[in-house]
Write a structure and sequence with these properties.
CATH class of the largest domain: Mainly Beta
Largest sheet: 10 strands, mixed
Strand content: 35-45%
Number of strands: 18
Number of helices: 8
CATH architecture of the largest domain: Sandwich
Number of domains: 2
Order of helices and strands: EHEHEHEHHEEEHHEEEEEEHEEEEE
Distance between the termini: 23 Å
């Protein structure tokens, strides 16, 4: 019996033209293995609705075709289920796909991953019970995610423009972090990232040693560099050695409580969401089935 796969395509994610995607699937997918369908999202959270319908309709493989936000919408419906997530990275930053080493050319992805891949289990996490798959954070990166969502343009240039505009006047806020109810950290960071995978996207790694299978989150407390230090920080990021710098402290924990002075936005897999002052972040070990390269 053939396996059933559905491709849930976000037509506006990233800067990739997806008009030819159905032809690529038809040309490269192994039709002896699969019967397939392709559907398109039309609004925010539509990918989640389409995923739930796909589960009801008996699809075993559910492919998120887009960026990290699309992946989150699909994956959060599959946590703790037997269905298998397939990531087809056609978004802007594609942070999780880069961490997982997935191919970025659709035809190569279909051949290597969909036709010949292997199912693994990976960790997921929640922030105030809202699932995330790759990265969540507070502080400057959440602010930029919020502005990015409101900007009509996609891509790295938009991120770089927003960072340049907002950086000089950003004032870090005070946080209390409680790790696994044991260790308390008082800090006033540029941002704090809760990393399941290693990077924000665009090959920018915030925690190079993060793993999606270790049952832990990397808690990255990043200090705000002054303007003179920015080129130094950029070099550490470009060489994937930011964890070796003096600008960041990285801790590992299963559960993190965050006490903030005010309500503010959080970054959840690249999407900004308002959230209450107090936050709880928790890992959910090996809770998601995912199809990857062998």
């Amino acid at each position: 019996m053939k396996k059933k796969i559905i491709f849930i395509v976000n037509p506006i994610s990233g800067r990739h033209n997806k008009n030819n995607f159905p032809n690529l699937v038809d040309n490269y997918i192994d039709k002896e293995q699969y019967e397939y369908d392709i559907v398109y999202t039309e609004r925010a959270n539509h990918a989640s609705d389409l995923t739930m319908k796909a589960i009801e309709d008996g699809y075993q493989y559910i492919a998120a075709v887009g960026g990290d936000g699309t992946i989150n919408e699909v994956a959060r419906c599959l946590i703790g289920r037997e269905q298998i997530l397939v990531i087809v990275p056609l978004g802007s930053g594609n942070g999780l796909a880069r961490h997982l080493g997935l191919p970025f050319k659709a035809e190569r992805h279909i051949n290597e991953v969909i036709n010949n891949g292997k199912v693994y289990k990976m960790d997921t996490a929640t922030i105030n019970d809202i699932p995330f798959i790759s990265i969540a954070g507070i502080g400057f990166d959440a602010l930029i995610a919020d502005y990015f969502a409101k900007d009509g343009n996609r891509g790295w240039k938009t991120y770089a423009k927003l960072i340049t505009e907002k950086y000089p006047n950003f004032i870090p806020k005070e946080y209390t972090l409680v790790l696994d109810d044991e260790k308390t950290i008082q800090c006033k960071p540029f941002f704090v990232t809760f990393a399941n995978s290693s990077q924000f996207g665009y090959n920018t790694e915030i925690s190079p040693k993060a793993s999606v299978q270790d049952g832990l989150l990397d808690v990255c407390v990043f200090k705000k560099p002054n303007l003179i230090e920015v080129p130094i920080v950029a070099t550490f990021f470009l060489t994937k050695q930011i964890d070796k710098s003096n600008f960041i402290d990285i801790y590992k924990a299963k559960k993190i409580r965050v006490i903030r002075e005010i309500e503010d936005v959080v970054n959840i897999d690249g999407e900004a969401l308002p959230m209450s002052k107090d936050i709880t972040v928790e890992i959910n070990p090996l809770s998601l089935n995912i199809l990857l390269n062998k």
